[in-house]
Amino acid sequence: MNFTQKLQKKAEENNFVLNSKQLQQFELFYKMLIEKNKVMNLTSITEEDEVIDKHFIDSLTCARVMDMSQIHSVIDIGTGAGFPGIPLKIAYPEIEFVLLDSLNKRVKFLNEVIEALGLSGIRAVHGRAEDLARDRELRASFDLCVSRAVANLSTLSEYCIPFVRVNGFFVSYKSKKGIEEIEASAHCMKMLGSKIVQVDEFQLSDHDSDRVLIKIKKCSGTSKQYPRKAGIPSKNPL
Q1: What residues contact residue 35 under an 8 Å CB cut-off, 6+ apart?
Q2: DSSP classification of residue 138
Q3: Which of 8, 25, 70, 124 is the most exposed place for a label (fewest CB within 10 A)?
Q4: Is 72 helix (H, G, I), strand (E, B) or coil?
Q5: What is d(CA 117, CA 115) in angstroms, rounded to the nearest whole number?
Q6: Mean of the per-residue pLDDT values for the chain?
Q7: pLDDT > 70 fraction of the chain, expressed in percent and rounded
Q8: What is the Cα–Cα distance from 117 to 102, expressed in whole angstroms?
Q9: pLDDT tens, 54-69?
């Protein structure tokens, strides 16, 4: 099977429907990712089947816990090489996306991908979440925040929840270890005006480790003191 056939099969197995244009966009994204990865550290996962499973399909699993037809705007915090934001944008082209990353080289790559794939209603922004969460245009502006960034749940929530509007959601993509972080995040959830409403444990494929999606609802406005200054949320989680 070629790349698009493999991706289509995997998508169907996970109840995702991708048309021929979307499959072509995924294939071009894969080629660009592998090419850029030769000169820049974007991902340690490069083998075709693994990229399909662990990057593309994994990114789309947000739909397991969210009705994406009700979502109009999404911000992806610590997007890195564009996960989960770009796969979600390909699958849901009508949704507005902002991809945020602290490394300018990655943002440049993301803008190249956005242009090459012909995506509109999406932009990549360079900056730290701690700083950009104070931007009036971005703070409390999004229906949904997503992140596959590696940080404990309390730290990540402090970065992400300020971007979400009241009654919006934050979905944190985790390995099974994420379950252990839930109990420790109770105080953080209270301080940020949010609560965990769903924990979805699943296996992506036969040969893959368990995955967890933690769905958090923002119930009230987040105090202006959050997020704290750069470095503090990771050193001293709420």
Answers
A1: none
A2: T
A3: 70
A4: coil
A5: 6
A6: 95
A7: 98
A8: 23
A9: 999 999 999 999 999 9
Amino acid at 45: I
Specify whether the CB–CB gap between 105 and 39 falls below 8 A. no
**Residue 200 — φ and ψ, nearest 5°?**
-110, 110
Instruction: Spell out the residues 6+ positions from residue 2 whose beta carbon is closer than 8 angstroms to its own.
Output: none
CB count in 10 Å sphere of residue 76: 30
C-alpha separations of 164 from 49, 161, 219 in Å:
34, 5, 10
197: Cβ contacts below 8 Å, ≥ 6 apart: 169, 215, 216, 217
Residue 72 burial (CB count, 10 A):
11
Q: Rounded to an integer, what distance in angstroms lies between the CA atom of residue 53 and that of residue 66?
A: 20
Least confident of 34-38, 43-47, 48-52, 105-109: 43-47
pTM across the whole model: 0.96
Determine the pLDDT at residue 95.
98
What is the rounded CA–CA span in Å between residue 150 and residue 72?
Answer: 26
User: Residue 163 and residue 89: Cα distance in Å, rounded?
Assistant: 18
Q: What is the pLDDT of residue 208?
A: 62
Look at residue 152 and give its three-state secondary structure. Answer: coil
- Give the model's pLDDT for residue 205: 73
Tokens of 230: 């750069």
Can you say whether the dihedral through the CA atoms of 64, 68, 74, 80 is positive or negative?
positive
Smallest CA-to-CA distance from 85 within 64, 108, 104, 113 is with 113
